[in-house]
Amino acid sequence: MEDPFRLTEKGEFMRKKFEPVLRFFRRLAKAMKSVCRFGRKQKAGPFAAGASTRVCRFFMGLWKSWNTARKAGLVQQLAVLVRRKKEAALAWVRSRVDHVTPEEGTALRAALLRQGAMLLLMVSVTVGSVGTVMAATHVATITCDGAESLIEMTSPETDRILLKAGIQTGPDDLVSRSDDPEHAGDVLITVKMARNVDVESDGTSKTVTAHYGDTVSDVLCAAGVSMDADDLVTPCASELVKPDTKIQVTRMVQVTVAADGCKVATTVKEGSVLDAVRQAGVALGTEDTLNVDENKVVDAGMEISVSRVTYNEVTETRSVPYQTVTKKDSTLAAGKTKVETAGKNGTAQVVVRQKLVEGQVTETQDVSSTVVTKPVDQVVRLGTKRSAVASVGSDGTVVDENGNTVRYKKVLTGKCSCYTGGGWTSTGAKAAFGRVAVNPNVIPYGTKLYICSPDGKLVYGYAVAADTGGAAMRGIIIADLYYDTYQECTKIGTRTMSVYVL
Question: CB burial class (10 A; 0-12, 13-18, 19+) of residue 247?
C-alpha cells in the first residue's frame, strides 16, 4: 500500500488523488453546457433550465479555480510544506522511540499530538489559501454578435479578456460591460461588430456603418433617408442587417393616366413615363403616342395621356389631268398659239392608307392607283414665223417734220429697207417716192402712213401703201421704202423705223 505521506516535489500525490475527481466534474460541466447550449433544457421547463445553468456554472468555476491554483503554484507549495513537516515529524519520532521509557510514553504521545495538531493547522492554512484563490477566480460571459462564450478572467481589463477569447475589435465596434447580477465578481461583456451597409436612394449611393442587431430602419435613419407612407424599401424595414446587406429605397409617385376614354389616378414607382404607364396597367401599341416624352422622369401630379394610333385603307376616284403637247408651226407668226386638239381629263381608282389618332385622320398615303379612263392630251400649235414688227403701239399723236401734230391709229416699229428702179406698183400706180411696198395682210393697200426713225432723226415722211414687198411678205421687214436714186437708198440701207398708221 502506498504511503500517503510520500510526496514528490511537484505534488504527484495531490494530482493523483484530486485530478480524477476534477476530471469527472469537468466532463459533467461540459455535458451540462452542451445541454444548455443546444436547447435541450427547454423540454424540462424554465425552472429546470435555470437550475442546469447554475450547476454548469458551479462545476466550470470549480474546474477553473483548480487550474488557477495549480498554475499559481499553490498546490506545489502545499505538497512541499506537507513533505517537510512529515519528514521532521518522522525524524523526531524515531529519535524518541529508540530510547523511550514507560514514564516518558505519556509525554511522547502528548508531544506527537501537539506536532500532529500543528501539521493539521499548517495544512488547513494552505488549503484555505487555495480556497481563497479559487474564490477569487471569476468568469466573463462574452456575447459577440449573439454568440455566447465563457472565459476565465485572468485580468480585469476588458481588452485582455476579449483577446483571450480570440475576439479582435475595431474602432467602429461597440463594446459594453456590466456586472453579472447572479454571480458576484463575474462580468457580462457584449460585443457588436461593425459592418458597412450600402444604401441606394434618390439616385445616390451611400455607405453607412451599422452594428449587429441594427435593423434596416435603423440604417435608413442613420443615413438621413426619410420615407413616405407609399415608398418601398428592400429588404423589409424590420429586417436585421448583415455584412452583405444592400438597402434600396424606391420612391412612389402619384400620377394620372388617361387612356381609352378613362382617366385613372394611380401610384407608381419612380422612373420613366413609359414605366409609369406600364405600371398603371395600360398596354401600349407600337404606334401609340404619349403627350410627354416616354423617357422623362415622372413627377408627382403628372398627367399622362395615351393616344391610340390606328390605320385604315379607303378607295377614292380621282381625276387624271391631261398633258399639253406643243407643236411648232412655221405658218403662224412667232409667239402665236392655236389649239389643235382639246385636252380631256381621265379617271383613276386610288387606294389610300389613312393614319388615325384617336379616330381623327392626321396623315394619308397613296398605296396603289389604277387608271380607269385615260386622259386625252391637248395639242397646241406654236407659231415660229419670223415677223419684222418689233413692237406695236396703240393710237396716239406724233409731231411730223414740219411741227404738225398728227394723230395715228397704231404704230409698228421694225426693220425697213429701200428700193429704186421705177416701174409700176401692185396697185397699178407708177413707182415713186412716197409709195412703199408692204404686206397687204398687215397693212392694207391705200393706207396712209408716216415713217421716221424711233428717235425722229431720220424722216421718210408721209407715204401710201401702194406696192407688195417680197421681204415684207416673208416677215423680214415692215415696209420697203422707194427712193428715186440709188445713192439715196445706200444712205439709208436697212434700219429700224417706226411706221405710223394714220
Answer: buried
